Amino acid sequence: MVLYRDGVAASIGLQVPADVPVRLCGSLASTIFLVIGDRCEITLDPVHVRALAQQCATALKDSTLVAAAEEVLSGVYDAGAQARTAAERALRQAERAEQAKALVSAEEARNAAQAATAAAQRAQAAVEAASEAMQDADRSAITAETAAAAAKLAVERARSGR
To answer: Nearest to residue 25, comparing CAs of 61, 52, 49, 60?
Structure first.
């Protein structure tokens, strides 16, 4: 998040561990506090809390989907690494089989190594494509959020006659 004050931009980031309590507390003058642990309070307007409430289900679903995608991506990466290792082992065995004049076995091992290498390359390409897609999605989400905020501001200005 970037905050602007007197033309100066400041970025604020906060990671809250799962074991740190977080709660919302109402207060006087329609102020709501987001309390994080016992040392951090963020003052919110009720409009912010309502906006967050509307976003909760989507954010939780997105978080679950991202975690599942990361797990699949990790599995694909691991499978690619295993295929590369198997290909190297098959090539070494093919060379030994050739030295022992076991040409049929050598050819089978080389074919298996080629198949494993191709599978490893496909896995690597899938990981790279997924990574690029995630970056594109992140950039698109930021662009969409910025456009939505600008549209909301334009509507508010149009209503107030500014």
So the answer is: 49
Please, are residues 95 and 101 in contact by the beta-carbon 8 Å criterion?
no
Question: Can you tell me the distance from the alpha carbon of 16 to that of 22, in angstroms, rounded to the nearest whole number?
Answer: 9
In this structure, the chain runs to a length of: 162
Q: Is the pTM of this model over 0.85?
A: no
Residue 47 and residue 126: Cα distance in Å, rounded? 42
Please write the tens of the pLDDT for every residue from 21-80.
999 999 888 889 999 999 899 999 999 999 999 999 999 999 999 899 889 999 999 999
Q: How far is CA 146 from CA 27, 72, 140, 142, 151, in A?
A: 31, 30, 10, 6, 9
Any idea what DSSP says for residue 40? E
Tokens 């989507």 belong to 58
Residues facing residue 3 across a β-bridge: 10
The set of residues, in sequence order, having a beta carbon less than 8 Å from that of 16 and lying 6+ positions away, is: 22, 36, 37
Q: How far apart, in whole angstroms, are the C-alpha atoms of residue 90 and residue 113?
A: 5
Place of tokens 């992140």: 138
Please provide the DSSP assignment of 45-56 as one string: -HHHHHHHHHHH
- The answer to whether the beta carbons of residues 93 and 56 sit under 8 Å apart is no
